[in-house]
Amino acid sequence: VVSDRLSPNHYLQDAYKLVPSDDKLLLAEAPPLYAHPINAAICTPSTGHAAAAGEVTVSGYALPTGVDGAVIARVEVTIDGGRSWKAAKFLDPAQPFCWRRWQATVKVDPTVRQITVRATDSSGRVQPKTSPWNMKGYMYNPWHTIEVKVQS
Question: How far apart are CA 44 and CA 91, in angstroms?
């Protein structure tokens, strides 16, 4: 059925909306979310990992937006807060609407405190360094960072 009105479904009317507070007026006026942002996450090592100086294998997944058939085109890892990036290798082929697992090896020493990842899709969207706060946590997609403890 084609309609000129939004479905009365709870999720479209109230739940899946990006609002800064629980203000009912803002909630009523906000459009529902139909897509999600590009995102990448580190799965291993886990945050707080203690590693010996040398090479560390980092792996995780990246998720495209689900918009315009874009696929995850690039995943990069940094150990210096984003001053330099290393391309990760993909473990899966690129497919629209599908996660892509990735893996990278980085060389760490005791000065390294964090490992960070970001993703880029085939339409040029890049995962942002920061993401605005919102009450429900929707659309939250800043670079994913883990803490590491590197021993000499």
Answer: 14
Residue 143, pLDDT > 90, answer: yes
Q: Are residues 29 and 46 in the same domain?
A: no
Q: In whole angstroms, what is the distance from residue 113 CA to residue 95 CA?
A: 34
Q: Which domain holds residue 133?
A: 39-151
22: how many CB neighbours lie within 10 A of its CB?
Answer: 9
Tell me what the pLDDT averaged over the chain comes to.
Answer: 93
Which DSSP state fits 84?
A: S
Of residues 151, 127, 149, the one with CA closest to residue 139: 127
- pTM for this prediction: 0.89
Indicate the number of domains in the chain: 2
Please tell me whether residues 67 and 101 are part of one structural domain: yes
